Amino acid sequence: MTSQFPRASRPVTRQSGERFILAGTEVREDDVEPATGLHIAGIAFRISAAIILLLAIWQAYDWFRDRPPGGAGLSVIIGDTIRLAVTSFLLYGAADLADLFVKNFQEIRATRILMARQTYLMKQMGVFRGEIPTTPREVDRRGLGPEEAVSLNGE
Fold first, then answer.
1. How far apart are the first and last CA of the chain?
2. Where are the domains of the chain?
3. Residues 88-107: pLDDT tens digits?
4. Which of 95, 93, 110 is nearest to 6 (CA)?
5. Are 1 and 15 within 8 A, CB to CB?
6. Which residue of 25, 58, 80, 88 pairs with 53 in a disulfide if CB–CB is 3.0 to 4.6 A?
C-alpha cells in the first residue's frame, strides 16, 4: 500500500537542533510531518459507514425473509433502514471532508514553504544589489525603525 503523502525529493536534515532544513530552506517541524490523524479518522468514518450500511441492508433482508403476520412493522423497518442509510452516507461524507482537510493542509504547507523560499531569494537579491543592508536594523513589531515609530502617548 502506498502512502498518499508525497515523499521529499531531497533529504530533510536538522540544523543544530532548532529547525529542519528542506532543500536549503528552514521549515517548521509541522511542515515536514504528515497529518496522519485526519487520514486515520477518514478511514474510521468510511469503515463505520460501510458497517452501518451493511447492517441496514441485513436488517431489511432479515425482516423480509421472516415477515410477521399481516405485514406488521413495515413502516418501522422502512423508517429505520432509511435512518441507518442516511447516517451511513453522512459518515462517508465526513470521511471525504477529513480527506479534504488533509489535502488542504498539504496545499497550505506547500504554499508556506514556497513563500519562505521566495522571500529568502528576494532578500538575497536585494542584499546582492545593495538595496537592502546586510546587517538587520533594530525594528519594532510593525517593522518600523526607531526613527519612524510614533508613540501613542505623544512622546
1. 66
2. 35-129
3. 999 999 999 988 888 888 78
4. 110
5. no
6. 88
